[in-house]
């Protein structure tokens, strides 16, 4: 063993291994050492924070310098390995670098398992509504009546506000009052024996359901008498929005609301949105798969080496097409969707275009590999019968590629259904569009219904396509 | 049975299938009209209106913000006494960036022309009066032409008159790029994002392997599906995998973001969950695909269930497992580029910020970085898998 | 002594693999089970160490009821019964030594074995077992680097590690060519004679049966149709067991 080999490794990690013919090992050692050094350099440079960037915990901490131990040890190991091949155990650098990657990764990714336990109350907050998915609701007739009340009283007492919308009439003992004063309201025309909810409307139109005075966690619920009459007292709530002069008299309203069960169930508002979202999702996936397959077809021929290797020009086309397919394929369809949403605008069209583009790239590559893998034998045989080019394609090429193309298309359909469920998160339409809004509004009953809908759709589509593939196989 | 019967049945079925497919397409095409401002309308793709708006945006996305140069403000000044004779006239330079007024001095309310030479080309500048007190009085905004020349009308106001022998001066401030070209700020922000993203994927994949590897044995027919308890466990684990696999990581990330706050941790948790389901399924299929012979042989030696798994099954599945793990790390890098969009953290978060604030060049930097990283990961994982199996 | 009493096996799909099979095996016998493919030979052998659960009947081994044993007791019985398979059933990616050591699993603790810790006595006896089958120099090779005959010898070494009193061999030479067949069966014969290990072996070729068996059982459609000495199988018996159309084929190269 010449001394130059370990010496080369001492100068540049992996060089000795490279020189002694162990190419893969040499390159791995070099790559690993450079990666480790680069990572240490990165962790030492302080982060230039701006409002758009998130602080990274360990960036700029001088203590990261101690990590240099790892590349130094690996460097030493590499000299040992160069001097005595197949003696130095490979687990040493593997263990060292893995440890370093995971410890740094743990900090960089801000892993903090205790938070899972300490924030468990938040989980409880969403689990309870999620157990009652908002898809259908009991059928009920909504009835309401309201009366206007001026808060606080203007200098001139307003005329007796008698309000009668529909059959419910409300009379209040005062037409105006200050926050905290007690009013007595009498109502007639209510549906007997159905509880009544008291709702206050602020000057800017927000509704507040009034709560029990002694137990603010419970909504007030009054029971009308057998004739549909109700007399009850209430305290004027402070519904004046911030920034509005509290001494200025403003029109506010008291609503009495009843919901009379009619028996049976109906689709809730959100349930309707879910159906629409699912419809859009499936429509989007179907269109995208179809257009994507049609689009992938020509590209696949251009990206097949055995068809394009003929001369320099076609070879250039092959390289360009293949590179573009590879680039586009590597971008998540959600990111493509972001671009399309900016260009086309919110909605399923942008989502469909994004999924289509991704499908063209992904299927184009798969199809081209199928074409590259076809057996030249049958083509030769059919050519030998004197068939023309189209006949060769029809009888020699198509029968070989169609089954694989179909299988890939069905497989892509499954992927596209899944992608379409979330393309709405960035504004691309479908169920995800509603889902992300419900999450932002913390409407977890609707979120849970959307989850169930996605589950059902994905499972059904998987089942259908699995059956289809089975039959075609 | 006559031979025509199945034929007729088949023809009917084919027709029915065709009709169903056709209806599905019509519904799909029209379906997007239900309540959307931008229904699926392929003609729009070729409209001038779309591309006049989308073209520049696309160009911004395609030209990433990678490098810039240090900017230094340089002020050009020239004394112009108002009124004439109140101070010495300024002498315009003859070369280099310079301001040249049409008159050497002016009376109040006189209008004259100011020309600028050899300034920054195609740049917006503001012409102004620097008052003797040191404050300035703003004048018109002007744009230089391609040669760095401008010519603008300027007015001598009474306020710019000479005070105590100090004349007012005409002035422009130039943003001069100095120093060498350097990597831009966006480049470093994106680098940070990419590194965080890779680590998110790494941690999530590792965590998922730790959970999925043992669970996959429970979801493998040939290991677990024995007896009533075994069968129940088998179906339970399999169902859980299937349910979790129906949801994309980004959806689960929104829930975790609520639980542990926005940040990379939420993304890692979501990635872990979907990876457990996906790896668990792949692993269990690998376990089901093993050669049953060694299992039988070791059972015959009197080894217990755990020993059989360890000595007869594990050695057979290691290559598959390693290949799946590397493959999933690759997939997870890809997913975590987008997971930041809702869960915070990583390159996705930066991308969302840039899109929302309309900094499309920087968004372009992020997108290109994602392409590069995903491509590199794809290549590395393919190479490693090829070598290992 | 092994005693099989009225053994029945019906598979869940309704196939009757064994019907009322009864026989006895004295210690030190080389019992060969013959019969057509699907006659129930493999099922019978696997019922003896309960790799397959018999539907009905009893198996007594040295007075212990194998069919009633479960859990640790069953594993205790299994570890005294070595088994060799047609497809060798080695863990292909593990080393030869690990494959042989796996024969000790029934004797060692779970934790230690999972951690890969073996006593020096176990390692020494693994090397001895490999020496016995002439493969000591292959100890560190991967099992799939070996030829078929070598793999079957490793499997014999693995069975030896159990210190078996009984070896079940399920078509041990069906995947091997005639020369190797004899060498494998000679190893078994040697164990049977020198170590007094009882051997129950299923075989295809009649000439091998004549050469190695001390006693023969023939199965047909899951029933015992013949019990006796190998030389008792004449032309008529042969037709009875294998059906009218059968022609005797020799494994060749009678050693």
Explain this structure to me?
The complex is a heterotrimer of chains A (473), B (389) and C (255). With 473 residues, chain A is an alpha+beta fold. Chain A has three domains: 4-111; 137-266, Immunoglobulin-like (Sandwich), CATH 2.60.40; 269-472, MetI-like (MetI-like fold). Chain A has 16 helices and nine strands. Chain A has helices spanning 4-11, 15-19, 23-44, 69-83, 91-108, 114-118, 120-130, 269-302, 305-308, 312-330, 333-344, 348-372, 376-384, 389-422, 431-440, 444-472; strands at residues 136-151, 163-165, 168-172, 182-188, 196-201, 207-209, 221-222, 230-235, 250-267. In chain A, the strands form two sheets. In chain A, strands 1, 5, 6, 7 and 9 form a five-stranded antiparallel β-sheet that branches. A four-stranded antiparallel β-sheet of chain A has the order 2-3-4-8, with no helix packed on it. In chain A, helix 12 crosses helix 14 (389-422) and helix 14 (389-422) runs antiparallel to helix 16 (444-472). The two termini of chain B are 54 Å apart. Chain B has two domains: 70-182, Sandwich (Immunoglobulin-like); 185-388, MetI-like fold, CATH 1.10.3720. Chain B is α+β, with helices and mostly antiparallel strands. In chain B, the strands form two sheets. In chain B, strands 1-7-4-5 form a four-stranded antiparallel β-sheet. Chain C has nine helices and ten strands. In chain C, the strands form two sheets. In chain C, strands 6-7-8-3-9-10 form a six-stranded mixed β-sheet, sandwiched between helices. A four-stranded antiparallel β-sheet of chain C has the order 2-1-4-5, with helices on one face. In chain C, a hairpin with a 2-residue loop joins strand 4 (56-61) and strand 5. The chains are: A alpha+beta (473), B alpha+beta (389), C alpha/beta (255).
Which series of helices and strands of chain C comes N to C?
EEEHEEHEHHHHEHEHEEH
Radius of gyration of chain C: 18 Å
Q: Which stretches of chain B of 5+ consecutive residues score pLDDT under 50?
A: none
The CATH fourth-level homologous superfamily of the largest domain in chain C: P-loop containing nucleotide triphosphate hydrolases
Mean pLDDT of chain B: 83
The SSE string of chain B, one letter per element, is HHEEEEEEEHHHHHHHHH
Termini of chain B, distance in Å? 54 Å
Give me the number of helical elements of chain C. 9
> Briefly, what CATH class of the largest domain in chain C?
Alpha Beta
DSSP summary, beta strand count of chain B = 7
Q: What summary fits the major beta sheet of chain B?
A: 4 strands, antiparallel
Q: For the largest sheet of chain C, list the strands in their spatial order.
A: 6-7-8-3-9-10
Classify the helix fraction of chain B into a percent range: 55-70%
CATH C-level label of the largest domain in chain B:
Mainly Alpha
């Amino acid at each position: 063993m010449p001394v130059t080999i370990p010496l080369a490794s001492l100068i540049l990690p992996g060089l000795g291994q490279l020189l002694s013919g162990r190419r893969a090992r040499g390159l791995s050692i070099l790559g690993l050492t450079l990666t480790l050094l680069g990572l240490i350099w990165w962790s030492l440079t302080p982060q230039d924070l701006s409002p758009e960037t998130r602080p990274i915990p360990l960036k700029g901490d001088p203590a990261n310098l101690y990590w240099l131990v790892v590349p130094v040890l690996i460097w030493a190991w590499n000299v040992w390995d160069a001097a005595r091949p197949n003696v130095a155990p490979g687990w040493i650098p593997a263990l060292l670098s893995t440890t370093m990657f995971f410890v740094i990764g743990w900090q960089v990714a801000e892993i903090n398992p205790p938070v899972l336990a300490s924030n468990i109350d938040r989980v409880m907050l969403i689990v309870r509504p999620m157990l009652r998915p908002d898809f259908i609701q009991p059928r009920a007739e909504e009835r309401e009546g309201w009366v206007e009340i001026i808060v606080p009283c203007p200098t001139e007492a307003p005329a007796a506000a008698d309000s009668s919308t529909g059959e419910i009439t409300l009379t209040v003992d005062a037409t105006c009052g200050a926050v905290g004063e007690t009013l007595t309201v009498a109502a007639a025309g209510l549906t007997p024996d159905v509880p009544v909810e008291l709702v206050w409307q602020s000057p800017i139109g927000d509704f507040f359901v009034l709560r029990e005075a002694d137990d603010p966690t419970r909504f007030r619920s009054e029971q009308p008498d057998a004739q549909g009459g109700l007399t009850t007292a209430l305290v004027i709530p402070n519904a004046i929005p911030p920034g509005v002069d509290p001494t200025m008299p403003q029109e506010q309203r008291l609503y009495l609301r009843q919901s009379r069960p009619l028996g049976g169930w109906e689709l809730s508002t959100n349930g309707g949105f879910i159906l629409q979202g699912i419809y859009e999702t499936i429509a989007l996936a179907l269109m995208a798969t179809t257009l994507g397959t049609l689009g992938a077809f020509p590209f696949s021929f251009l990206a097949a080496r055995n068809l394009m290797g003929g001369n320099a020009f076609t070879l250039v086309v092959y390289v360009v097409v293949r590179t573009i397919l590879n680039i586009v394929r590597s971008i998540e369809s959600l990111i493509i969707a972001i671009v399309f949403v900016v260009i086309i605008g919110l909605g399923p069209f942008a989502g469909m275009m994004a999924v289509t583009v991704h499908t063209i790239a992904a299927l184009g590559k798969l199809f081209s590999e199928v074409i590259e893998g076809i057996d030249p034998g049958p083509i030769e045989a059919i050519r030998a019968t004197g068939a023309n080019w189209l006949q060769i394609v029809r009888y020699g090429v198509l029968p070989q590629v169609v089954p694989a193309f179909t299988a890939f298309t069905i497989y892509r359909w499954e992927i596209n259904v899944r992608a379409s469920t979330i393309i709405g998160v960035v504004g691309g339409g479908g169920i995800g569009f509603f889902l992300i809004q419900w999450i932002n509004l913390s409407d977890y009953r609707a979120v849970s219904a959307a989850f169930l809908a996605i589950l059902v759709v994905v499972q059904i589509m998987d089942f259908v396509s699995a059956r289809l593939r089975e039959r075609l196989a | 049975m006559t031979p025509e019967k199945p034929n007729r049945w088949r023809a009917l079925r084919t027709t029915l299938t065709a009709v169903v497919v056709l209806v599905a397409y019509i519904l799909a095409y029209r379906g997007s009209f239900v309540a959307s401002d931008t229904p699926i309308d392929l003609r729009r793709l070729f409209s001038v209106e779309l591309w006049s708006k989308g073209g520049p945006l696309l160009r911004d996305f395609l030209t990433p913000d990678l490098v810039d140069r240090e900017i230094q403000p340089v002020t050009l000044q020239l004394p112009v006494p108002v009124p004439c004779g109140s101070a010495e006239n300024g002498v315009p330079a003859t070369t280099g960036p310079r301001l040249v007024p049409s008159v050497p001095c002016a009376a109040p309310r006189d209008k004259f022309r100011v020309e600028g030479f050899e300034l920054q080309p195609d740049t917006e500048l503001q012409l102004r009066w620097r008052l003797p007190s040191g404050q300035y009085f703003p004048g018109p905004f002007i744009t230089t032409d391609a040669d760095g020349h401008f010519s603008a009308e300027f007015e001598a106001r009474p306020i710019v008159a000479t005070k105590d022998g100090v004349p007012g001066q005409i002035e422009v401030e130039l943003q001069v790029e100095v120093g060498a070209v350097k990597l831009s700020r966006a480049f470093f922000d994106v680098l940070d994002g990419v590194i965080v993203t890779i680590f998110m994927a790494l941690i999530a994949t590792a965590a998922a392997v730790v959970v999925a590897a043992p669970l996959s044995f429970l979801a493998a027919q040939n290991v677990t599906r024995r007896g009533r308890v075994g069968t129940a466990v088998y179906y339970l684990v399999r169902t859980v995998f299937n349910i979790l696999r129906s949801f994309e990581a980004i959806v689960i990330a929104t829930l975790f973001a609520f639980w542990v706050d926005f940040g990379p941790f939420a993304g890692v948790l979501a990635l872990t969950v979907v990876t457990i389901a996906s790896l668990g399924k792949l692993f269990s299929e690998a376990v089901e695909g093993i050669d049953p012979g060694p299992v039988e042989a070791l059972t015959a030696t009197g080894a217990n269930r755990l020993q059989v798994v360890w000595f007869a099954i594990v050695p057979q599945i290691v290559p598959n497992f390693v290949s799946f793990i590397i493959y999933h790390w690759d997939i997870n890098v890809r997913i975590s580029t987008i997971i930041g969009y809702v869960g915070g953290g990583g390159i996705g978060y930066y991308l969302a910020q840039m899109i929302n604030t309309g900094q499309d060049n920087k968004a372009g930097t992020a997108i290109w970085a994602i392409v590069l990283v995903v491509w590199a990961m794809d290549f590395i994982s393919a190479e490693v898998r090829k070598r290992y199996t | 002594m092994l005693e099989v009493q009225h053994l029945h096996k019906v598979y869940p799909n309704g196939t009757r693999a064994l019907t009322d099979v009864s026989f006895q095996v004295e210690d030190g016998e080389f019992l060969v089970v013959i019969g057509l493919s699907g006659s129930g030979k493999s099922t019978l052998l696997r019922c003896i160490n309960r790799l397959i659960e018999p539907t009905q009947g009893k198996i007594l081994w040295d007075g212990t009821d194998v069919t009633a044993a479960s859990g640790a007791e069953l594993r205790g019985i299994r570890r005294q019964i070595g088994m060799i398979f047609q497809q060798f059933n080695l863990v292909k990616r593990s080393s030869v030594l690990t494959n042989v050591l796996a024969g000790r699993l029934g004797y060692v603790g779970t934790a230690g074995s999972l951690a890969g810790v073996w006593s020096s006595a176990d390692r020494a006896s693994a090397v001895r077992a490999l020496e016995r089958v002439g493969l000591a120099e292959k100890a560190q090779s991967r099992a799939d680097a070996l030829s078929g005959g070598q793999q079957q010898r490793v499997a014999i070494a693995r069975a030896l590690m159990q210190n078996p009193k009984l070896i079940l061999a399920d078509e041990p030479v069906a995947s091997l060519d005639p020369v190797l067949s004899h060498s494998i069966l000679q190893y078994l014969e040697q164990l049977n004679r020198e170590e007094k290990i009882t051997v129950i072996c299923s075989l295809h070729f009649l000439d091998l049966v004549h050469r190695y068996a001390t006693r023969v059982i023939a199965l047909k459609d899951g029933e015992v149709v013949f019990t006796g000495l190998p030389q008792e199988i004449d032309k008529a018996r042969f037709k009875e067991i294998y059906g009218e159309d059968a022609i005797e084929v020799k494994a060749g190269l009678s050693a």
